[in-house]
What does this fold into?
Amino acid sequence: MFVSEIGEFGLIERLKAIIERSDETVNVGIGDDAAVVTYNRPVVMTTDAMVQGVHFREDLIDAFSTGYKAIAASVSDIACMGARPMHALVTLAIAKDTLVEFVVSLYEGMRQACDDFGVTVVGGDVVSTTGPLLVSVTATGELLGEKPLLRSGAKPGDLVFVTGDLGGSAAYLHLMEHQSTAILAPEDVAVLQERHQRPLAQVRMGELLAHFEGCTSTNDISDGLASELHEIASASDVSILIEAYRIKTLPALRHYARLAHVDALSFALYGGEDYQIVGTVRPNRSGALLAMCELQGIQVTLIGRIEDASPCVEMMRDGRRIELKKGGYDHFS
Amino acid sequence: MFVSEIGEFGLIERLKAIIERSDETVNVGIGDDAAVVTYNRPVVMTTDAMVQGVHFREDLIDAFSTGYKAIAASVSDIACMGARPMHALVTLAIAKDTLVEFVVSLYEGMRQACDDFGVTVVGGDVVSTTGPLLVSVTATGELLGEKPLLRSGAKPGDLVFVTGDLGGSAAYLHLMEHQSTAILAPEDVAVLQERHQRPLAQVRMGELLAHFEGCTSTNDISDGLASELHEIASASDVSILIEAYRIKTLPALRHYARLAHVDALSFALYGGEDYQIVGTVRPNRSGALLAMCELQGIQVTLIGRIEDASPCVEMMRDGRRIELKKGGYDHFS
It folds into this structure.
């Protein structure tokens, strides 16, 4: 059934039933001119849009996962500021001949992400467009520590850390676009697909860092490690040196890279959509950071250090020091 | 020059310079993963999207006014909850061949609205699309009174009030779509155009109502008076009776309606985009409401009353009681 058959108000009723969540911080939820929510601390807010054919390909990601990722992307930005993600508003622009099932599945994916990350959708807007589907998520959260974690606090001598493994999402995209999945073991395909379709925003790590003494900067990895490091270098007015062999990638990614004759590291450096947190820590606090993450079951790796030089990002690889370009996606170039 | 020639980051720098505003409630503004703002009271939040060709026609409204209206529409939702609008996030989806000048003018309009309504844009997302331009504004504000003003509090016996005059925006659209502007005096055209292009969100009225004892419900008029009254009737489980002769329209609108042989009242009832506030007040407080608005220079009119019956909206006109359909725009029908 097309959305045109049930109409705007019929559609909104369906979506409301999927996305509404019990949440004691919500005084007024979906249904009035605006929502009313309770905050006891400074409010952290961000918005992030995804357009079909630009940010995702309908044939490579299903509606459920698209919804999941849309929430995860905004939540990730909140978490890496040292804040607890709490509420979201969703704008959806779709064509009149979109299937109701598709939209329902999209919202079911959003609901799953909301449950996983502890976020409640309190409102939104559903509009028609003659163009490709667009989903835009505004997320808000509560600042946890005294100050937010910014990109701008890195100092020479600080060490660079990153959570989890990188490049899996990009490797899956590359596989689907350039190869047959038959070249890779099914379990490897499944692992990469999981990275692409169900990225885990680092909510717990954001909470821990907010209260951790000695974390000097953070950035979430949406555009690839190189691009995010450039943002820290530029905002902090420092240079960054990382070591290639320290960057964690999945075995499945390395298997694929070998079979497809591509550089495994390029997925980590320039792929994006990992939604891990990269940041810097004072050197005398790096042991405490590792111990805390170990205790909490969060994978974290030290991959480099901050140097006192004009903003740039370099990488040691096979004994050579090479400069990393910013990379990342430019929407208009 | 096309946006593709200056690239995403070049464009964002230009837009940031236009939209950034000094605001002591903003701890972290545009430029990091998220913004950080200070709230001392519950947070009111809403989002509203406009799509070219659906919500506006490029040939009938310029970029500046489109930006102005996008901010006004979201701010209006915040104000009518009894809250002070404070911050906004803007999502913009545009084609690569959009002119930089167009986008700059759009943001200059947003900036003007922000200055007029006391709102600061603290972040956003600019993405490319192959479809029509979409601008989505999330606005947040601080609740002023003890409780928000909802659609659901109207009680039998309450009187219905509405601010300003209605239908001017819709009349301008009708004029531009169906007639030559030559049929109307230039000063009348200018007045209607102003209503269409620079709607004034009722920020001051929202503040006053928040602290006014006896306002039982509110709704902002984005979809036409009839549709908004239906929402109050439905949410409050009451029926509403209004009197046609009490509804305020502009002389320019009436001149146009007479010349174009259309019913002047239909613009007020079914036009929309007035961004006035319609609401209900306890009968023993209606005099105080009128006095307060008189003192503050805000035009307000009592147009009807709440009755104890199943939700519906009726209007007395020329001695006859007629039922008003909901009307309003359905995006998917």
Q: What stands out?
A: Residues 100-117 of chain A form the longest helix (18 residues). Chain A has two domains: 3-143, 159-323.
